[in-house]
Structures are given as structure tokens and as C-alpha cells.
Design a protein that fits this description.
Rossmann fold, 7 strands
């Protein structure tokens, strides 16, 4: 079944080639599986890599970008659809609306903000979409340990983890999100 998978990842490239390789692999894999890639609409950093590789693999790519970031993140002009919104709140809401699942790759504060909002909205039952964290090179090991600690002491409900997955294998994650 074809799904719209929202990918959260860095607008920066990070240090070293592993991060761009992961973004390239994710974009191609999503397209090759017949899914639509939904993402932040920019052309910089890992965002541009994931989009370009999905497009190059014949996939449909949909972007959502706030007006203020069109120049800063260099809006991608090769997308099937590019939604322009007024602010970051509208961006995250539109990304959620357009998507059936979330895939989180390495990134910075913005990526973590998006991840935690997706988890919180799921916990509050604003959506019931699965969330996958691709743990490339152990990037999310410490975060996952933190989340498990919060779970064990009762701050993070068990039910929240039912459709929250972490894996270092992209194929496993995409199977859980499909």
C-alpha cells in the first residue's frame, strides 16, 4: 500500500558523509517502495538530499515551507507539490495532515522539535500515525535511553511507545511504517 511518509531531518548536512548517505538512502527507498515523501520543502542540507534522491528514484515529493524560510532554506523548485504556509506551527500541522507516518533521521533542534511534537500529538490522540526513528550510526542512542527512563518512571505512557519505533535498519523501519 502506498503511503505518504513525512521525513524529519536536518537542514544542515552534519559533519561527515554518513548523514548525507543516509538521507540519500531514505529518499530513494521511500520512492522505490512507491511511497510519497513529505518533508520541509527546502533544498539545503539533508532536506535537499532526501528530496533529490526521492525525485531521482521516480518518487513523488511534497514540500511544506513557511514564507520566511523560502530564501533561508532555499525552497526546492523540483517538487510535485510545494505548500507555502505562514509559520512553523502551520508547517508542522500541514506535514502531519499530509502524512500517514513519520520517519526521523539525524538532525538538530528543529528535527527534535518535530519528533517530540509528533510523539506528543500521538499521545494526545490528535493522530494515530506510526513514528520511526532511524538510528543512523547510534545518533539517537542517548535519546532513546532517556525516553526509556521516562517510560520506566511513569512520565511517558506505555501506550505512546506502541507505534514509536527505533531501528538502525531502514528497511525494518519502513516495513513498520507501511
Amino acid at each position: 500500500m502506498s503511503r505518504a511518509i513525512c521525513v524529519y531531518l536536518g537542514a544542515r548536512s552534519g559533519d561527515g558523509p554518513a548523514w548525507e548517505q543516509a538521507a540519500a538512502e531514505a529518499g530513494a527507498a521511500i520512492a522505490q517502495a512507491g511511497h510519497t515523501l513529505v518533508y520541509g520543502g527546502g533544498q539545503l542540507g539533508l532536506m535537499g538530499v532526501v528530496a533529490d534522491n526521492a525525485i531521482n528514484a521516480g518518487g513523488k515529493v511534497v514540500g511544506v515551507i513557511p514564507t520566511a524560510l523560502i530564501e533561508l532554506e532555499q525552497a526546492h523548485h523540483g517538487l510535485a507539490e510545494q505548500h507555502v504556509v505562514e509559520n512553523m506551527h502551520q508547517r508542522k500541522a500541514k506535514l502531519t495532515e499530509l502524512s500517514d507516518a513519520f520517519l526521523v533521521l539525524p538532525g538538530g533542534f528543529g528535527t527534535l522539535d518535530e519528533l517530540f511534537e509528533a510523539i506528543t500529538w500521538r499521545q494526545l490522540r490528535f493522530h494515530q500515525k506510526p513514528i520511526g526513528i532511524w538510528n543512523v550510526g547510534g545518533y539517537y542512542d542517548a535519546l532513546w535511553e532517556f525516553l526509556q527512563n521516562g517510560r520506566s518512571i511513569g512520565f511517558m505512557p506505555e501506550a505512546t511507545f506502541e507505534s514509536l519505533f527505533i531501528d538502525s535498519d531502514l528497511g525494518n523501519l519502513l516495513a513498520k511504517l507501511s
